[in-house]
Design a protein that fits this description.
The protein is an alpha+beta fold. The chain is built from 6 helices and 3 strands.
Length: about 220
């Protein structure tokens, strides 16, 4: 029989490591009885991108803050820090101890070199971007009624040449708030735009390097 989901709540053991608005967002989410799928549709974002906003791991656009404020009935003044550049990766310990998150870590431990070998054979030497990147989670139910998790990771490939990855916008290791390199074929990211946020309305291009898929 297929498993049934339940509403996500903020783990109190990590709450102290997150920005103050995270608790307010989760409280309002629970009070409204809304899933991340429902909130994501309201924001016109992916579920993972939406959840990342709630954990303070992504930068919100002014439109995101406005929509969340109206949907969850939380004052915009209480969500203002969501528009700041996030301090990512501090929610939990490394390696992770939460069992479900550890399974994801374990997948990389077990299959990391296998992924690398196959990626190198298909693309050559280089890296998969975690900036020009999108991910989603789907649920499948097989003929026996068992539930299966499907996690898709989609990242732009940057080939390595002379020891450095060639990027159409940002040099390897560069923060997304920086300007694109002079030889960029596209304007790159609008200043102030984070990869989890939509490009600004006045941008003359889609906002992201050519071929990039975002959340």
């Amino acid at each position: 029989m297929a498993t049934v989901g339940q509403m996500a709540a903020l783990d109190p053991t990590i709450a102290r490591n997150l920005p103050p608005q995270c608790g307010k967002l989760f409280e309002a989410k629970s009070a409204k009885g809304l899933s991340f799928e429902q909130i994501a549709k309201h924001l016109e974002r992916s579920e993972v991108a939406c959840a990342a906003l709630f954990y303070g791991q992504a930068q919100a656009s002014p439109e995101d803050v406005s929509r969340l404020s109206k949907l969850l009935e939380v004052p915009e003044s209480a969500l203002g820090s969501m528009k700041a550049i996030p301090d990512r990766g501090r929610a939990g310990p490394m390696p992770p101890v939460e069992p479900l998150i550890y399974r994801l870590y374990e997948i990389v431990q077990n299959y990391g070199y296998a992924y690398k070998a196959i990626l190198n054979e298909k693309f050559g030497d280089g890296i998969m971007s975690a900036i020009c990147f999108s991910t989603k989670v789907d649920k499948e139910v097989d003929e026996t009624g068992a539930s299966w998790v499907v996690i898709t990771l989609r990242g732009k490939w940057y080939s390595t040449k002379n020891g450095a990855a060639k990027s159409p916008g940002y040099p390897l290791g560069c923060n997304v708030m920086a300007k694109p390199t002079a030889d960029a074929k596209s304007p790159g990211y609008p200043l102030g735009c984070n990869v989890m946020a939509k490009p600004t309305a006045e941008a003359k291009s889609p906002g992201y390097p050519l071929g990039c898929t975002v959340m």
